[in-house]
Amino acid sequence: MKFFPGCMIHNRYPGIEASLYYVFDKLGIKISPLEGSSCCPAPGVVKSISEELWIELASRNLSLSDEDILTACNGCFTTLLEASSKINGVDVRHVAEFLYREVGIEEIKKRVVKKLPIRVAVHYGCHFFRPSKSKGMDSEKPIMLDELVEAIGAESVSYRHKFVCCGGGGGVRAAATEVANDILNLKMDAISAAEVDAIVVICPLCLHQFDVGQIELREQRGEDYDVPAIHYIQLLAIAMGMDVDKSGLVHHNVVTAELVEKLIQGEIME
Q1: Residue 157 Ramachandran class (φ > 0 left, ψ -120 to 50 alpha, else beta)
Q2: Residues 6+ apart with CB under 8 A from 114
Q3: Starting from the edge strand earliest in sequence, which strands make up the sheet with 155-156, in order?
Q4: Same domain, 142 and 243
Q5: What is the pTM of this model?
Q6: Is 244 found in the same domain as 166?
């Protein structure tokens, strides 16, 4: 299986990639980099300009592998999956649905060496399960990520606007930052009210929106949000024995000493 990192992971959150390789090594599943890959390209930007170019660039990435392709980004998942369906290419998998469907909740529980008893607000992100038909999802309100976080000892806390966009995708953050932060404000009000330790995402662009957007809301609007966001694969790696420092969490823009301490301590399994 080849891992397609996309742009955001390499450029902003390399801890996601390090965590992914750690987890798959522990699971005994061989993965290797998709050498020579480029931007997927982003579905909400390039596709709106030229669908033909979007498919052509995505198809080039797919042509680099004769194995299944794994991604940890919702946008990359959408682009490569749709391109693959048009050219009858390789299978494209998102790490969250792969872990859930192919590895399974019970197997993940067995591989956990340290439970992480924290309260989290999960955020799926729009491109992970929409459109549900092409993504093979049973519902517009999935429970997959909730079950994945509970498999490592965390509590998935229900909150208002759970399935609302974070505001970061589709070029909104780049082209209309105020609109992006209006949407984020709505999400963060609900998440803060839920009194959680962290926001768990499965997309680096969503992570960036929560991670950078909170700082902007603090500085520009006087909001006091301080809820770290972390990719699920980073959390899983920690639960499977990876040092918190090596997961990359400590290099995020929003990180609290309380969360780091809870993740370091955890609950060691017998």
Answers
A1: beta
A2: 238, 239, 241, 266, 267, 268, 269
A3: 155-156, 119-122, 198-201, 229-231
A4: yes
A5: 0.95
A6: yes
240, part of any domain: yes
Assess if residue 251 is contained within a domain: yes
When divided into structural domains, the chain yields a total of 2
The SS3 of residue 229 is strand
CA atoms within 13 A on the CB side of 75: 25
- Dihedral of the alpha carbons of 77, 148, 2, 27, in degrees to the nearest 10: 180
From 70, 98, 126, the end of a domain falls on 98
Note whether residue 105 is domain-resident.
no
| Structure-block tokens of residue 260 | 């780091």
Do 84 and 132 lie in one domain? The reply is no
In angstroms, rounded to a whole number, what is the distance separating the alpha carbons of residues 156 and 69?
29
Same domain, 117 and 244: yes
> What's the pLDDT tens digit per position in 221-260?
999 999 999 999 999 999 999 999 999 999 999 999 999 9
Q: What is the pLDDT of residues 183-221, one digit of tens each?
A: 999 999 999 999 999 999 999 999 999 999 999 999 999
Which residues, at least 6 apart from 207, have a Cβ–Cβ distance to it below 8 Å?
Answer: 8, 13, 16, 201, 229, 230, 231, 252
Boundaries of domain holding 239 = 113-268
Strand-pair category, 155-156 with 119-122 = parallel
Tell whether 32 and 57 lie within a shared domain.
Answer: yes
Q: What is the Cα–Cα distance from 215 to 218, expressed in whole angstroms?
A: 5
Query: In the block, which residue shows the tokens 């965390």?
Result: 154
